[in-house]
Amino acid sequence: MITLASEIDRATEKLGIQREQRPFSPHLTLARFEPPGLPEKLRGAIQENVAREFGALHSSEFRLIESKLKPSGAEYTTLQTFPFAAEA
Questions:
Q1: Which H or E run contains 79?
Q2: Residue 58: CB partners within 8 Å, gap ≥ 6?
Q3: Which of 16, 22, 24, 33 could cross-link 5 (Cys pair, CB 3.0–4.6 Å)?
Q4: Rounded CA gap, 9 and 20, in Å?
């Protein structure tokens, strides 16, 4: 996943999105844009790759995490954890 995150940073940097400076921590951010909305270049890249296969991810749980942006950096709080049903 670290390699994938690095490749995503390189690709999105070409679309005008600043590269992340913090060490990678596996998570999924649904959306965060300043100002709100998708940049046009990112919207185009999404359309170009809409049918692309990105692989598989295996996980035993889903965590709903709240992110509060503060001057010192983001503060994360796990609101709830949802374990996935075990395979029969």
A1: strand 73-83
A2: none
A3: 24
A4: 7
CB-based contacts of 13: which residues, under 8 Å, 6+ apart? 19
Report the alpha-carbon distance of residue 8 to residue 15 in Å, rounded: 11
Q: What is the 3-state secondary structure (H, E, C) of 21-75?
A: CCCCCCCCCCCCCCCCCCCHHHHHHHHHCCCCCCCCCCCCEEEEEEEEEECCEEE
And the tokens for 18? 């600043």
Domain ranges of the chain: 2-83
pTM over 0.90: no
Whole-angstrom distance between the N-terminal and C-terminal Cα of the chain? 28
